Amino acid sequence: MNTHSPLPAPGAPLQHYVSSAPFDLQSVEAMTPEQSKVFQASQLRLMWWKFREHRLAVISGILLAVLYFGILICEFLAPYNLHTRNMDFIYSPPQRVHLFHDGQFVGPFVYGRQMTLDMDTLKRNYIEKKDDVQRIRFFCKGDSYRFWGLIEGDRHFVCPAVNGQLFLAGTDRLGRDVLSRIIYGARISLTIGLVGISFSFLLGIVIGGLAGYHGGIFDLIVQRIIEVLQSIPSIPLWLALAAIMPITWSPILIYFGITVILGLLDWTGLARAVRSKLLALREEDYVLAAQLMGARSSRIIGRHLIPGFMSHLIATATISIPGMILGETALSFLGLGLRAPITSWGILLTEARSVSVIAFYPWLLLPMLPVILVILAFNFLGDGLRDAADPYK
Question: What is the pTM of this model?
Fold first, then answer.
């Protein structure tokens, strides 16, 4: 049986099977709404979608945002003033927060304490008084302070009970609240990484950009300088540069001095990354076109080359910030970094340099926890940004 349609008669017009409807690109491509959304998305939106898939990076970014917001209002968040001393509670261990007393819900509170002195070891022992319930207050009046050294205030997010105590992280050898000093120390330890990476970022982009774009003898000299700096052990170089600073300098000058030192030692890796990228990009046609139009080297590097891999630079800088925080902590712990009355996490850890202190008062090591959390958060955030920098991968 023949299933084919019969041939048209001789002279009859041929039938056309081409649609006469207007040409529609979207209908030809037949893209789904999801495909159309990706096809029309901008580069930043693609990077955000890629970054959002990295759950640890998102959580780390939120944590760092909360911490950096907290340093703006650390006077309000801290239960005590930075310099408040509680001489009756020297080396007091952390207090536990309770919600129920004698089977009844009371709300967050701590028990009062009574100090006894061990005459054999001269160690202070603190005993909780179960009949002294001290409710924790919120959004209350407490120690007075100067907000950012400018505005007088006495409002706190959390306060001890009236005539009570609240030492959630214990006290040090002068009876100062360790938690309050950790909150105040975050302002210095977190900002020194940002200021230092800004200085390092500037040096790395300028020196690495010129070396990669021009090459020649300048590139040779820069590479030898970088190799010499990277061959010197970090800690002895930190100690040597920190020892140069006069002891008569004010704490603010020492803060900026430490920042400059950390920036001077961290720009080498960034400069090499910029140099290697520019060595490849300077051969592109759009660079030649800019040169033929008379654009200067600074404009070509700043407007055409650097923006092409800025996302990679941001990821690299994010991973470099923890190194600067560790550098400040190490220098301050060794006594060659920041000095009192400035307070940082490194300075707080100097209280725990003695083995006997660690054995009897281990809570003095608590400033180490925010250092670990911040470094891990920056590393996870850097991994997420590095993956998001190439959303098409």
Answer: 0.80
